Amino acid sequence: MVTTFMGDPYVADCPTRRILDRIGDRWTVLIIGVLGDGDARFSELRRRVEGVSQKMLTQTLRGLERDGLVRRTVHPEVPVRVEYALTDAGRTLLEPLRALQRWSIEHLGDVTAAQEAYDHTR
User: Fold this and answer.
1) Residue 116 — very low, low, confident or very high, per pLDDT cuts 50/70/90?
2) Most buried pick, 32, 63, 80, 94, via CB within 10 A?
3) Which of 89, 73, 110 is nearest to 22 (CA)?
């Protein structure tokens, strides 16, 4: 059963704020980006998302799975193979997150220049 709830992320205890915290997290953005290319094993995710620790990758994947954005599939093989994939809900995040990635690439020079100007005045 899906509950309809009109949230307000500007209210401190609103559940929408926790959702924004999840999808705004840097590791979430990068993991969803990788999974947008297709299913991946833990080791592939760790290799493609440079800088993420095993602990953070595990925590982020568990949170994404709990939130219904990522599906974890265990294949009963020897050795056991575990794959991660975006759910339908997770795939709906691809377009907005890719838009943010494009924006960061397109505006990298402007932001860097602004940071340097700011730092120079301090």
Assistant:
1) very high
2) 32
3) 89
Neighbours of 89 (CB within 10 A): 11
Rounded distance between C-alpha atoms, residue 68 and residue 76, angstroms:
22
pLDDT digits (tens, 9 = 90+) for 71-101: 999 999 888 899 999 999 999 999 999 999 9
CA distance 45 to 37: 11
Spell out the domain ranges in the chain: 15-121
The fold of 15-121 is: Arc Repressor Mutant, subunit A (1.10.10)
- Facing residues of 1 across strands? none
Written as six digits, the tokens of 40 are 């991946």
Average pLDDT for 40-47: 97
